[in-house]
Amino acid sequence: MKTTEAFDGLACTGCGESYDADEHGRCPDCDAPLTPMYDYAAVDADAFGNADAPGHWRFESLLPFPAADAPTASEGDTPLVETERLADELGVGSLRVKDEGRNPTGTFIDRGMSVAAAAAAAADVEPVALAAAGNAGQSAAAYTGRVDLRSYAFVPSRTAFSNKAMVNVHGGEMRVVGGRYADAAAAVDDQLEADYYSLQEFTTPYRHDGAKTVSYELFEDAGVPDAVVLPASTGELVVGVVRGFRDLVALGVADELPAVYVAQTEGCAPIAAALRRDADAVERWSNPDTIIGELEIDAPAGGDVALDALRDVDAAAVTVSDSDALESAVTAAQTSVLEVGGAGGVALAAAWTLADEGDLDGDDDVVVVNPDDGVKTPDVLRSHLMGKGI
């Protein structure tokens, strides 16, 4: 497998053991997730981000594989949208939304999936498989189709129809599992009779690594903001965003890290709860219940890695109700030409809470990350309006 010059192999996030790029899956010794490591001295900081490659692959010097070997659809380079009216309502200096819904399949997951699919293509093992709340299944089908690999997505019955439909449209096989995300995850090994290559978050080492390019682009557009507010689900967006800013400091490109606020719903908040009690590990959330399916992850595979990442920054957790999240998503659509999904609405509602409680003030430059496109679940947003008599 051809790798970039700065790529320095994989390291276990648990025991610290090192592996080369041919290793796939979690650590053979302790079963913790693996993560890519890089030699920052091998990166030309002055030229960082200037590679002649599409989308986020222009940052190939801090990605594991060269852009020439990547199955890319120009994922990344998503806009940072000014929302002056929302900033005025919150009473902050500025509020901008990093709109990851503009990615090829409408989700930030496309960034990491393009990297993970490159590794899968090099391994030349079929089928590839994963469990997904929805978006990851659609993204996996798209990128594995690009490299001609047969793929399976196991999704809970609650998954949005748009995701289910597009898994098949992209050529992927889909199995719908009764219940919730945990049931879909358990069904992968139960139902697949053959060995498979996993594209599961934090089983493949590369999905969370691709997500870090969100931070590279934020820095290019806005420098280091005072605060970044992002929804937490599997942990991959949290880990990616924090790591991205840490990379920039390590390169000497940035001087500081932003404050990071993690947002979850009141009905399923395992990472937020662990952060609040300063726990060593994330505990499974009992009886998860939120209408925002992408965030109904009761035992996030990257929860412990996310906690470790958040300890390196000024971090705090916010939980919001489903109703406030959907209202925030609708408000963004009606005031800022943004089609924000329920998960993005959670982050926006959290920003409102932070402003109301005085954690954000009139001088703060705030960035909210919208992880997916609102058109993936328009029925949920429309139902919220109907509940208000609209």
Note the topology:
Layout: E1 7-12, E2 18-19, E3 34-38, E4 80-82, H1 84-90, E5 94-99, H2 109-123, E6 128-131, H3 135-146, E7 151-156, H4 161-169, E8 173-177, H5 181-191, E9 197-198, H6 207-211, H7 213-222, E10 227-231, H8 236-251, E11 259-265, H9 270-276, H10 303-310, E12 315-320, H11 322-336, H12 342-356, E13 365-370, H13 378-387
Parallel strand pairs: 5-13, 6-7, 6-9, 7-8, 10-11, 10-13, 11-12
Antiparallel strand pairs: 1-2, 1-3, 4-5
Helix pairs in contact: 2-3, 3-4, 7-8, 8-10, 9-10, 11-12, 11-13
Kindly state the mean pLDDT as a whole number?
Answer: 96
Question: What is the approximate shape?
Answer: globular
Q: What separation lies between the terminal Cα atoms?
A: 55 Å
Uncertain spans? none
Structural class: alpha/beta
State the total count of DSSP E strands. Answer: 13
Largest sheet: 6 strands, mixed
How much of the sequence lies in strands comes to 15-25%
Q: Please work out how many helical segments DSSP would assign.
A: 13
Strand order of the largest sheet: 4-5-13-10-11-12
The portion of residues assigned to helices is 25-40%
